[in-house]
Give the backbone structure.
Amino acid sequence: MRSSSYSPLPARGLRAVVALALAAGLATTAPAAHADTPAPASPAGTAAPGVRPDTAAEPLAAKPYMGWSSWSMQSSKYPGLNPDGDYSWLTEANVRKQTDALAGKLKRYGYEYVNIDAGWWRDKAWTPEFDRYARQKADPVRFPRGMKAVADHIHAKGLKAGIYLPVGLEKEAYADGKAPIWNADGCTTADIVHDDLRTTNGWDSAYKIDFSDPCAQKYIDSQARLFADWGYDFLKLDGVGPGSFKSGENYDNVADVAAWQKAIATAGRPIHLEISWSLDIGHAADWKKYSNGWRIDTDVECYCNTLVSWESSVDDRWDDAPAWTRHAGPGGWNDLDALDVGNGEMDGLTKAERQSYATLWAIAKSPLYTGDDLTRLDPYGLSLLTNREVIAVDQGAGPPARPVTASDSQQVWATKNPDGTYTVALFNLADAPAAVTADWTSLGFTGRAAVRDLWNHENLGTHRNRVTEALPAHGSRLFTVTPHGRAVALTGYEAESEDNTLTGSASVADCSACSGGKKVGNLYTGGKLTFNDVVVPRAGTYQVRITYVGGDARSASVSAGGGGAVRHTFASTGDWGTPATVSVPVTLDAGANTVVIDSGSGYAPDIDRIDVPASS
């Protein structure tokens, strides 16, 4: 489940509680065993029941996964979706319908996972079911045939099955500390948590597991084995911290994620491990080490009468994704959450917004899993979800795209592909129509380039030096650009150079990853960095590259020669030691110029250097 799967909070953390029982109350007795309880462990060297030979050797997360997830419809107040109360949509019958629709409409395009989100072990009043070993078991009303039967149906369609858990030992499973741990003689739930019953996860709905006791790993092993025996290929572990709007020792679940990776390795079946939500980028190395994907942001759903809305959190991804770009690659991907662009009115977006939403997900190489009702995709939504050229951007080799311009209302994102072409996206994030230009110098070359429109499957011919498009509010275009020109010549100017002028609080600081090992920081409330003697051969507007460092998004005004300053936003680079580069247009005179980066009344990023192209 995502940030809201337990307590669906409005998008920026002011969440409403789904059920008070999640935060309080303990089960007084251990529930009876369930039909889904696994048989004893398989002998060493043999596969657990249900392992498909064709999947055993497949590398996990070699590409971003594609599929469908149940949470968007579970959480929406769209008329008719949850007629029996909040989150009541999740049933075996509904999952089977979506499975059949995925197989019939999207499987041929690469969509393969059917992921069941939060609530499969809870009734419509959100009361949970557990087996005698403190493991979640299917609610008999929602899933009357149990979870293995659902996975079997999914597999029968040639698809993969996904399931969900919150991190920690759920409070209701504690059972006064007396519930035994499966396949772990002498271990009980009292052994696997801290004596003070400290809570954890994004909702404080579970006790924090104490992995200093070997019984704790045994408990995770038993859960992983249960899912493997049921035939599940994917697990979403939710409420993980640091992240999920929580920090501090109680909410550090790195050990939990590591324990799950270890348990999956011996469960007898490959299981993709996805963790959620709003994960702390300071632990990116841990998420990469122990999981196959990580949710970088809060929920995309709006918890309103549509599935999502542009302002609820779809538009946040343009701000939050850049810092994570460098962490994605084969084996682990940045998860931007569900892609709800297929149902038209139910999605709650304009056509332009739906295309921009899908464009960002593709260029960021996010997993492509929709939360739409696949039984009623509209023609436009189906065209977005099944555009093979756009899917190839998401699934192809090479790094995710990143912003190559400042993070202003009009943005250009790009990445260089292994074949020498560029994937280039233009975005107008403003509330009114505007033109957006991708200048070839910001990509690293000048001259001519062939441009192909991927959404419209159309070659747009050869463009010299740039391409400009008029875009509607929240609109986008997605291109493949094939250069026929030459590499751009640049002249570099270090921020820490003695030729520059530092004003106010500005000062030089060490930066091991920066050019020259230095940067200029403390640019706040009037702090200013002036690059002197920036020389160009002729007057014009130059795409000046600014290499900066920022642990959070910050703004600065850029001007030249006393001309009018333009304020630009610089996306977070993830920390205060990692540089990133974007281009901003600066009008320069022939000969020597001054280029000024001014914090104004706020806080600017630290500056590593600028690079000025040889031509405008």
